[in-house]
Design goal:
The structure is a single chain. By secondary structure, the protein is mainly alpha-helical. β4 and β5 form a beta hairpin. 61% of the residues lie in helices and 5% in strands. It folds into three domains: 145 residues, no CATH class; 173 residues; 222 residues, Orthogonal Bundle (Hypothetical protein af1432), CATH 1.10.3210. α13 runs antiparallel to α14.
């Protein structure tokens, strides 16, 4: 059991990567829509690149969405409008009219004959008004062509009439006036006009619900196909241009082929195919890291970070494809190479971006166009995005990326349509939105620094400013140490550039490597401006403890000021496990009869574990030792640097730093050249 546990512990990083690989693969396959893929790729206006294609089965030629939409519009325009005729309105009006006229009694002014004549005329007018119908005022503007036919519903019967046969309010008033005779009216006629104007009301209204129901029934009866292709029938010849009817047939074949593939029996085979493809892509990413970015591959946090970003981008894009593929190009995939370049390097950013786009090519419409657009945009992103700490640079880069998107899309549209008149300008707006969303990369960089403990060039540049609180304090309390740190930073930056290491990281680490000296600045010789050395009053053991403690105190101070772990690594390792040799020798001289405890004069380590921390160790020791040279000549500097580096090699200080002898030699040459420039002889000016 213990052997098994030991093996698991020994290979825990490998086991973690395997688990991460499996989880990411399953997650991506789960996100992908589970459908079959048509085995032919074709584009409108391009030649058919495959052999002659014959129909593998009988299928219908589907109408395009534009054709169906046009048919629906035709039905809506030609649809007959239905109006409801209310018969009860006639009886209600007559009753109201009868009630009003019965109030008038025979009097001197109105005789019985006048009343009977008035009633007879009124009933005739009512019948004439409702002969065809009196339409509501709210329904008058429903139809534009007044001479067209409408359907008038009376009970369960429908009668087609000309719309102009219906009476409007003004028509009814004119009919009443004309039916009463020529003016001036008699007293009874005026009474009749008043009563009729009040009691007559519309009895015809537009039946919108029934009209829409009839339209919907007609729309539902639209045939979705416009022909049939029989099995074995020639669809397209090799080299023929994909357009018109041929393109419609190919789209129909594609849709029905994918439907036939999508069955319960084929489901697991399709999932297996996706799993293999996704696994291959992720495996290529791991192999790339293992071969060309070993330091990243060995760091599980960084591998997790990369896999998380790939999965996150795939999640966002698949959600857009699933819910509304019209907004396919709004998703800012360029964030991925921007973020990876900020934390790692351009080559890794582009490689990961290309693999992500290839994976998305399985699920997006017009996959070739999508892949081409985003790979070109990714290349432009890598080439243009630099110095993210400068906001103007990011604005310019995003503008260039957006412009490339637009130009590439316009080129594809012209190829497809044969001219520029059919360009969908909404896509240009989407690319503009894509560019604006790309600025979220700054937010993601900040968030990832907090979540994954990574450090971007933006943060390194901020930390390397001498106006930061900690570096200002170092300059005020330990000015000699501050100047030493500045000199070491310059040396380390030049050395890192020479061997292709992260110069920004090593420079920032060099500026902070000695911040522990802030607490006891006068115990370090570079800060002893008065000539008084407090070590004269201490034992060699106590002096060595104060010297070695500046590493521990520096780590505590860095954590207090919340410096990133990658910067703290430089503080922790810049002396490795080397000796405070001066006080060790002094202790031996003072107590020759006793053997000095070497551990009391030794730094706690660890030794450097990256090229950058190894560079700092060499530069720190070289710069400090160079101050001891009474006459710094080229020969003395050469001998000094060789001696220091050889001693560090013998002490196994570089055993974990993955730095080669060749790179160490290059670093030595850079340091020698820089120190010679610092200590060069100046012209002696006359008195």
């Amino acid at each position: 059991m213990s052997k098994t546990v030991n093996k698991l512990y020994k290979h825990n990083t490998t086991i973690y990567k395997v688990i991460l690989f499996l989880i990411t693969t399953v997650a991506i396959v789960y996100l992908f829509p589970k459908g079959g893929q048509f085995k032919y790729e074709f584009t409108k206006g391009k030649p058919w690149q495959y052999d002659n294609l014959y129909a593998p089965f009988d299928f219908a030629i589907n109408k395009s969405e534009e054709e169906i939409t046009e048919e629906i519009k035709t039905i809506e325009v030609a649809a007959k409008l239905y109006f409801q005729f209310n018969k009860e309105t006639v009886s209600e009006v007559k009753k109201a009219y009868q009630l009003r006229t019965s109030l008038y009694n025979v009097s001197d002014s109105l005789s019985k004959i006048d009343i009977e004549s008035m009633v007879l005329t009124g009933n005739t007018i009512i019948d004439n008004v409702y002969n065809n119908g009196f339409i509501e005022a709210t329904s008058e503007g429903i139809i534009s062509d007044k001479n067209s036919f409408i359907a008038l519903k009376k009970d369960n019967q429908v009668q087609d009439i000309i719309y102009t046969n219906l009476l409007y309010s003004k028509d009814v008033f004119e009919l009443i006036k004309n039916s009463l005779g020529e003016q001036p009216y008699s007293y009874s006629q005026n009474i009749n006009l008043s009563i009729l104007s009040e009691v007559i009301k519309p009895n015809v209204s537009y039946d919108n619900e029934f009209t829409q129901k009839v339209i919907d029934e007609s729309v539902n009866e639209i045939s979705l196909s416009k022909g049939k292709v029989s099995v074995g029938e020639l669809i397209i010849l090799k080299g023929d241009i994909v357009e018109g009817k041929k393109m419609a047939i190919l789209f129909s074949l594609k849709g029905q082929s994918e439907s036939k593939l999508w069955t319960n029996a084929n489901y697991y085979w399709i999932v297996l195919g996706y799993t293999i493809l996704v696994s291959l892509a992720l495996l290529m990413l791991l192999l790339f890291l293992h071969k060309y970015r070993k330091e990243i591959f060995d760091n599980n946090t960084k591998v997790t970070f990369i896999f998380f970003n790939v999965s996150f981008m795939l999640l966002i894009q698949t959600l857009v494809v699933k819910y509304n593929s019209d907004y396919l190009y709004v998703v800012p995939l360029s964030i991925l190479p921007i973020v990876l370049k900020a934390f790692f390097d351009a080559r890794l950013g582009l490689f990961t971006h290309v693999l992500t786009v290839l994976l998305l090519g399985f699920i997006v419409p017009d996959s070739f166009e999508f892949i081409y657009l985003h790979i070109i945009a990714g290349i432009v992103t890598i080439l243009t995005v630099s110095e993210l700490h400068k906001r103007a640079n990011l604005f310019i880069s995003v503008g260039q990326i957006t412009l490339i998107y637009m130009i590439t899309y316009l080129a594809f549209s012209i190829i497809k349509e044969g001219n520029a008149s059919q360009i969908n300008w909404e896509y240009l707006m989407m690319f503009g939105a894509n560019g604006l969303l790309s600025f979220l990369s700054l937010f993601f960089i900040y968030a990832y620094e907090k979540i994954f403990g990574l450090v971007s060039d933006v943060t390194l540049l901020e930390l390397s400013s001498t106006n930061t609180r900690l570096l200002r304090e170092l300059n005020e309390k330990a000015p000699g140490t501050f100047q030493h740190s500045m000199q070491v930073a310059n040396l380390a930056e030049a050395a890192a550039n020479e061997i292709g290491a992260n110069s920004m990281l090593v420079r920032t680490g060099a500026l902070y490597h000695d911040i522990g000296k802030i607490l006891n600045p006068m115990y370090f010789i570079e800060n002893q401006s008065t000539g008084v050395n407090p070590h004269n009053d201490l034992s060699p053991t106590d002096s060595a403890k104060i010297i070695t403690d500046h590493v521990i105190k520096g780590i505590e101070l860095a954590k207090q000021y919340r410096l990133p772990d990658r910067i703290i690594d430089f503080i922790r390792t810049h002396h490795g496990t080397s000796l405070v040799y001066y006080f060790y020798v002094k202790e031996q001289e003072q107590s020759p009869e006793e053997e000095a405890d070497i551990k009391k004069f030794q730094y706690k380590g660890p030794v450097p574990f990256s090229k950058e921390t190894a560079i700092l160790m060499i530069c720190d020791a070289a710069e400090a030792a160079s101050k001891s040279l009474q006459q710094p000549t080229a020969q003395s500097i050469d001998n000094l640097i060789d001696k220091i580096v050889e001693k560090q090699k013998l002490d196994n200080q570089f055993i974990n730093s993955d730095i080669t002898f060749s790179e160490i030699e290059k670093i030595k040459k850079v340091i020698k050249r820089k120190l010679m420039n610092i200590y060069h002889v100046r012209v002696e000016y006359p008195d």
